[in-house]
Design a protein that fits this description.
single chain; mainly alpha; globular
Length: about 475
């Protein structure tokens, strides 16, 4: 039976121009929709235990469909953290143990399963599981604190009582969200199962099928675009002699378009997963000012912002939203004791890099993200403080050209770090960067020195003129 299943899936994967593991992942994301519909029309509002068992059954079923007996590695991780929290309780030692153990477990898994290329294996959903288990430990710990000592974010996620083993496994293997996200705290899962998202008038689940179907259709569209354009824009082409023979500007243009196309496969997965969360009702977020239902509680990407972004920071804050929120709440904000925003940001990005894997390409990518965001903040300061640059940026006649230039910058700044993210090994991504003379590294890593110079000359001179002008105005008065 297994060989027959493997045979038709393998044949279909070849026909679609993809690999079997990727196809299994896509099928699993799509199977979450019938799972959602069955729950919506038969189990919504029923016994929480019945719902827990339903989600555990289908979550583990989809996991086994993808990874076979290797699902035991994830199950073991969940069981260990549950027992630690059950026995030790919600305290600082249990949080430290959970944080270190979970990320350590993931890194060891990467070490033993990694290859020369990005592969979809049991470590793929285990990334999501790692964050969810670590967040659970923090939430149980926060539940032991006094209410007035908690931040607004912590009040929304703190757990006053230890969840049952059925709640924990159902939350970890929630069929709509365990493979590629989105991240969701235990409190949201508990509220959903208890019927907290029901219509206040009818007591039924608000109309969520159409919003979910719309999100699915957008996700399928992105898959189609990626499948077509991916034929012409492939990272492996960038390590060939043919790519090396292209002109410098031609390489930059290729990298810019390739980066956006590459992101489409991630966007498609997030959209499809988000759509099933909508369809089951988990994404319900109340109503807007006009009384319309909101379905953005599990949103993992802002499509409009993603497509129209003109800066690296805008791009970063437009996708993988739930992971960014998780890192902000459980890593960045927990590093406040460092009393340095940049150190906290470096710590958060370092965690993200480790979370993605052990290849050097991840570390290059996230470090590059840090220096790009730093550059953009500094550059905005310069434009604001230098009248000539302010006038140029606000000039109506020049705006179309500036917009085009900023969009190309955005595409290039997106594709440039993705080279190392996708090619993983230095012997590959270093080859591509050498072919374009490490232009991004040279500019952005030398920027701090340029900025220091500008602060001591142009900006210092401007501030001196402002003080002199203010002084003359006061004398006149």
């Amino acid at each position: 039976m297994a060989s027959v299943e493997q045979s038709w899936i393998s044949s279909l994967a070849v026909g679609l121009g993809t690999n079997e593991n990727a196809l299994r992942l896509l099928i699993s994301l799509l199977l979450a929709y019938p799972v959602s519909l069955i729950h919506r029309y038969t189990l919504f509002g029923k016994s929480p235990l019945t719902q827990h068992l339903y989600f555990i059954f289908f979550g583990l079923g989809l996991s086994y469909f993808n990874f076979g007996s290797e699902i035991v590695f994830g199950l073991a991780n969940v069981l260990i953290i549950y027992l630690v929290l059950l026995v030790v309780g919600g305290n600082l030692p249990s949080v430290i143990f959970s944080f270190v153990f979970n990320i350590g477990y993931l890194v060891i898994a990467y070490y033993y399963t990694s290859s020369q290329n990005y592969d979809i294996k049991w470590t793929t959903p285990h990334c999501v599981l790692t964050l969810r288990l670590t967040g659970l430990a923090f939430d149980v710990y926060d539940g032991t604190k006094k209410q007035e000592t908690l931040s607004a974010d912590q009040k929304k996620t703190a757990l006053r009582t230890m969840p049952s083993i059925f709640e924990v496994f159902a939350h970890m293997y929630f069929p709509c969200a365990f493979l590629v996200g989105p991240q969701l705290p235990m409190r949201r899962y508990q509220d959903f199962v208890s019927g907290a998202f029901a219509d206040t008038v009818t007591g039924s689940l608000p109309a969520c099928v159409i919003p979910g179907a719309k999100r699915l259709s957008v996700g399928v569209l992105y898959i189609a675009i990626y499948q077509v354009l991916g034929i012409y824009f492939d990272e492996q082409y960038m390590i060939t002699d043919e790519f090396n023979d292209i002109s410098f500007l031609g390489k930059l243009l290729y990298i810019a378009i390739w980066g956006k196309v590459t992101l489409y496969k991630y966007v498609a997965c997030w959209l499809i997963s988000e759509g099933s969360c909508m369809m089951i009702g988990l994404s319900y977020n109340g109503k807007d000012e006009n009384g319309n239902d909101l379905w953005d509680a599990c949103a993992n990407i802002k499509i409009r912002k993603f497509e129209l972004a003109q800066s690296g920071s805008a791009m970063v804050t437009s996708f993988n939203l739930n992971t960014n929120v998780w890192v902000s709440q459980y890593v960045y904000k927990r590093l406040r004791f460092l009393n340095n925003r940049q150190l906290s940001q470096i710590g958060a990005l370092a965690y993200l890099a480790i979370w993605h894997g052990i290849h050097s390409g991840y570390y290059n990518c996230f470090l590059f993200e840090f220096v790009v965001i730093k550059f953009e903040r500094d550059f905005e300061t310069i434009v604001r403080d230098v009248p000539l640059l302010t006038n140029i940026s606000n000039n109506t006649f020049l705006k179309p050209g500036i917009t085009i230039a900023r969009k190309f910058y955005n595409l290039l700044i997106c594709g440039y770090p993705l080279i190392s993210f996708c090619l993983l090994k230095y012997r590959k991504w270093g080859l591509v960067y050498r072919s374009i003379f490490y232009i991004g590294h040279i500019w952005f890593y030398s920027w701090p020195l340029v900025y220091i110079y500008l602060r001591k000359t142009v900006l210092k001179k401007k501030r001196a003129e402002e003080k002199r002008t203010d002084g003359e105005m006061k004398k006149t008065e």
